[in-house]
Amino acid sequence: MPKEVVIVNNNKLIKLLKQNGLSITDSRRKILQLFLEQDGALAHGDIEKKAGEKFDRVTVYRTLQIFVDKGIIHTIPTADNSIRYALCKDECGEGHHHDHHIHFVCDNCNTTYCLDDVVTPEIKLPKGYSAGHVEVVVEGVCKNCQ
Amino acid sequence: MPKEVVIVNNNKLIKLLKQNGLSITDSRRKILQLFLEQDGALAHGDIEKKAGEKFDRVTVYRTLQIFVDKGIIHTIPTADNSIRYALCKDECGEGHHHDHHIHFVCDNCNTTYCLDDVVTPEIKLPKGYSAGHVEVVVEGVCKNCQ
DNA sequence: TATAAAAAAGCAACAATGTTGCAAAAGATA
DNA sequence: TATCTTTTGCAACATTGTTGCTTTTTTATA
Ligand SMILES: [Mn+2]
Ligand SMILES: [Mn+2]
Ligand SMILES: [Zn+2]
Ligand SMILES: [Zn+2]
Question: Chain B partners of A117 at a C-beta cutoff of 8 Å?
Answer without folding.
Answer: 126
